[in-house]
Amino acid sequence: MPLPCFETLSTPRLQLSPVAEAHLDDLLRMNGDDAVTQYLPYATWATRADGEAWLARMQALQATGGAQQRVLQRRADGRVIGSLLLFKHDEGSRRIELGYALARDCWGQGWMREAVQAACAHAFGVLQLRRIEAEVNPDNAASCALLARLGFTLEGRLRQRWTAKGRSYDTNLYGLLDSDARPAA
Ligand SMILES: CC(C)(COP(=O)(O)OP(=O)(O)OC[C@H]1O[C@@H](n2cnc3c(N)ncnc32)[C@H](O)[C@@H]1OP(=O)(O)O)[C@@H](O)C(=O)NCCC(=O)NCCS
C-alpha cells in the first residue's frame, strides 16, 4: 500500500506543506547556497531550472508511493525556509528514512527541531510506523546534534558508504523507534 499522503502539519511556528511549484523561488534561495548543499546529495542550484528538475524528481519519487516531500513554511510570513523528505518507506517493516535542509539565515533557531519533531510524531502516530532512520555525514555537526537532541540513537558508522561530488565519505546511521523516549514538543 502506498504511503498515505498526510495533510499539512502545523507546529507553533510552521506549516509542513506538500511541495509545490510555487515554493521553488524560496527553495532556490536555500539550495543556491553552497553552505546548505555541502552535505546534501545534490549540487548547489544555479537556476530555477535546477529547482524544476528537482521538483520533477521529487514528484516521481512520491508517485512510487514510498515518499513524501514537504516544505517548512513559516506561518508568520509564508516564506518557505526549508524542506523535509520522508522516503524509502518499507511497509513490511513499518520503517522510513528522513532527510531535511534549512535556509542558512534560519540556522540555530530551532526551526528544524520543531519540524522533525512534528514529522516523527506524525510518522509514529497517523502513519503507524515503527522506526525512522537518518544518514548523516559525521562532519555535519549541526545535523548530528539535531538528531541526538530529538532522541535518535547513533547506531553505527558506515565507512566510505557514499561517493558524491568527487569524494567518498563515511555515514553515521541514526535510528529512532516508536518505543524510544523522546523529548516533549
Ligand atoms: C542541519 C540543520 C537542518 C539544522 O537545523 P537548525 O534548525 O539550525 O537546527 P536547530 O536550531 O534545531 O539545532 C539543532 C541542534 O544542533 C545544534 N547546532 C546547530 N548548529 C551547530 C553546529 N554548527 N555545531 C554543533 N551543533 C550545532 C544546536 O545547538 C541544537 O542543539 P541543542 O538543541 O542541543 O541546542 C541545518 O543546519 C541545515 O539545514 N544544514 C544544511 C543542510 C543539511 O546538512 N541537512 C542535513 C543533511 S543530513
How helix-rich are the residues, as a percent range? 25-40%
Number of helices: 5
Measured by DSSP, the beta-strand proportion falls in 25-35%
Ends: how far apart? 30 Å
Helix and strand arrangement:
Layout: E1 9-10, E2 14-18, H1 24-31, H2 34-37, H3 48-63, E3 68-74, E4 80-90, E5 95-102, H4 111-124, E6 131-136, H5 141-149, E7 153-164, E8 167-177
Parallel strand pairs: 5-6
Antiparallel strand pairs: 1-2, 2-3, 3-4, 4-5, 6-8, 7-8
Bound molecules: coenzyme A.
Coenzyme A (COA) binds at residues 36, 39-40, 100-102, 107-113, 136, 140-143, 145-146, 149.
Structure explained in plain terms:
- The chain has 185 residues and is α+β, with helices and mostly antiparallel strands.
- The chain has a domain of 122 residues: 3-Layer(aba) Sandwich (Aminopeptidase).
- It has five helices and eight strands.
- It has an eight-stranded mixed β-sheet, sandwiched between helices.
- α1 packs across α3.
- The longest helix has 16 residues.
- The radius of gyration is 16 Å and the shape is globular.
- The mean pLDDT is 95.
Features:
185 residues; alpha+beta; Aminopeptidase; eight-stranded mixed sheet; 5 helices; binds coenzyme A
Quick description:
With 185 residues, this protein is an alpha+beta fold. The chain has a domain at 9-130: Gcn5-related N-acetyltransferase (GNAT) (Aminopeptidase), CATH 3.40.630.
